[in-house]
Design a protein that fits this description.
The protein is α/β, with parallel strands linked by helices. The protein has 10 helices and 11 strands. The protein has 2 domains: 133 residues, NAD(P)-binding Rossmann-like Domain (Rossmann fold), CATH 3.40.50; 112 residues, Dihydrodipicolinate Reductase, domain 2. A hairpin with a 3-residue loop joins strand 10 and strand 11.
């Protein structure tokens, strides 16, 4: 049951990330209530939430800010600005998953500041951002990430299409990218928001280095990170299980969004 202090949550996108988040909110999280959802196909969205215990409003993305205190962006990157801009203009909290799109619209951070809004990045499939953020308060010399993914989870990426790189039938690991993390997040928009999040937490998209490997020998999305800083040297690796609905998305990502939402209302917050 919704309390007087509950924050209203609106979700844009009901796919492999947004739908599990919506279901968890409908099941009940103290301090939060699912008030509205949006998707490219509103009729399909209505069908997806029809069986919820408390059916939310189904509205266009730009209207979510009228129905919610927190707007969660779980949509394709092309829809990012149409979701986040109205939210921060209205002084809402925007929880974003498409971090790569944020690199192209950092003006939205200024817009949020002008209107009392906030942009909160859900860390998704990446661990250790607290340590990176802490190190960035001192001096970081370098941040390097090596990503390995099953070929199917990279198929159709603009970078591969533009260069005519075909991963079908790949028999051995193939390095398909080596360069700045910011450019990689734009070149692989459906699968490398983690690179953008890492760069924002640390030394920026141009100085954060990234290697991407298509590896037919792995079944999980793997990210290995090494940070060299004046305060510490640390490394970390995570292997994320791909979503059954969308192999470009890890199962951990919707759980990260749920944890982020809890952190906005919990009386105890662990981590920076």
């Amino acid at each position: 049951m919704r309390s007087a202090k509950s924050m209203r949550v609106g979700i844009a996108g009901l796919g492999a990330i947004g739908l599990p988040v919506a279901r968890r909110l409908d099941a009940g999280i103290d301090g939060l209530v699912l008030s509205a959802v949006s998707a490219r196909d509103l009729d399909r969205a209505r069908a997806r939430v029809a069986g919820f215990a408390s059916v939310p409003e189904v509205v266009p993305a730009a209207a979510l800010a009228d129905h919610a205190d927190i707007v969660v962006e779980c949509a394709p990157q092309a829809a990012f600005a149409a979701i986040v801009e109205p939210a921060v203009r209205a002084g809402r909290i925007a929880v974003v998953v498409s971090v790569g799109a944020l690199l192209d619209r950092l003006d939205l951070v200024d817009l949020a500041a002008e209107n009392g809004g906030r942009i909160v990045v859900a860390t998704g499939a990446l661990l250790g951002l607290d340590a990176v953020r802490a190190a960035a308060e001192g001096e970081i010399a370098s941040v390097t990430m090596v990503t390995r993914k099953p070929p199917a989870s990279l198929a159709g990426a603009p970078y591969l299409v533009e260069r005519g790189i075909d991963l079908d039938g790949l028999a051995a690991p193939l390095k398909i990218y080596d360069g700045p993390a910011g450019a990689a997040a734009k070149a692989f928009p459906a699968s490398l928001n983690v690179a953008a999040a890492l760069s924002l937490a640390g030394i920026g998209p141009e100085r954060t280095r990234l290697e991407i490997w298509a590896d037919p020998g792995v079944t999980r999305n793997s990210h290995s990170i090494v940070v060299e800083a004046d305060a510490a040297r640390f490394s970390m690796t995570i292997e994320s299980v791909p979503s059954a609905e969308n192999p470009r998305t890890g199962r951990l990502t919707p759980l990260s969004v749920i944890a982020t939402l809890r952190g906005l209302v919990s009386p105890l917050r662990v981590g920076t």
